[in-house]
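Entry type: protein chain
Record version: 2
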Amino acid sequence: MSVATFETMGTVVSIRGAGPRAAAEVRRVFTGYDHRYSLYDPSSVLSRIAAGALRLTDAPQEVRDVYALALEWREQTGGAFTPHRPDGVVDLSGVVKALAIRDAGAVLDRVSEDWLIVAGGDVLGRGRHEGEAPWSVGVVDPAHRDTVVGVVALEGTRRAVATSGTAERGEHVWRRSTPTFAQATVVADDIVTADVLATAIVAGDADDLRRITADGSVDVLAFAVDGTVWATPGAEQMVRPTVTARS
């Protein structure tokens, strides 16, 4: 199966199961989101808002809709996830990459029954690898990056996996309390939910984790800074026997 890769949003995106035309369309999806929401591109809508050259209320409707979505997630996570930087700048990167992956998945759905998108710590897939085994995603130990401690099989409705943490990019999550978690992997039915909740868990504390996982709608494997491993019942099945997990 061919693999197409490109750089965007400060990370590398890889696509499996897409021909050249579909891969190019997927790249355009990411480029469009990056052009509108990048805070590193001074011409982007969000950069103009941050610079005071454009009011958020005057921004295109799609930008205001994404901001509203981010506010909804802030409400749902009790503030653990937020679209506002500590300095007050609106930063929608916490939802934008996942939205791009979601839309890219819609593109691939039109051309293939078996595909996988990997963008940084986010993975979305459909079907099976080479038509045989389900797509699988390894979860590494944040303290030992060469050690895989769990494997997630993308089966049934659980097609999305997102991992947030500090092991590779350092402290890039705006924490609202003393750091409790070094890494969180969330398995969900959709990539936006997985990505937002992974960020919220790392930004929050144990109470946030319990609240986020209370309804059983996602599976979570989280590594605390003290070395404790937390796992929901569904996530315990993907943890290797050598790792002791706390539910």
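Comment: The mean pLDDT is 90.
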